[in-house]
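1st attempt posting a full record on here, be nice pls
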Amino acid sequence: MAHVAFNQLLPEVAKKETRSIILPAINQFGIPAGTYVFLELYCDDLSCDCRNVYIYVLNAQTNTTEATITYGWERLKFYMDWMGIDDKNDQMIKDFKGPALYAFGEQRSHANKWLTIFKDILKSDKDYANRLQRHYQLVKASIEHKNK
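the predicted structure (as tokens):
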């Protein structure tokens, strides 16, 4: 399964709706000051209904990936059924359901702090959480439209 960057597929929507964070020099996380962008990547396989997004936390100044987060918004049972895994304690299923650091993604020294920030955002900003789900649907619809 391949993934496509939301900003490449739907640039006009992404320009208005991509989350970015500006951290001052002194912040509670100890992360270097700067602007960081949450770049969204979605599965581009129309036969796949993974309901998951990869978030690349990019340092806008250096264009480096600081963390790769996976986030699946459905209940754990959905992913267990979808993957055919019976063990709810299986680490792969727990990580895929997310939010979690993506095991095969790039992770720099502050990756765990970025995961904490992302979790806090999901808890406090339900509109953002809903936006990620809507973006997933937009990606699937856009790919379907291009394939016709």
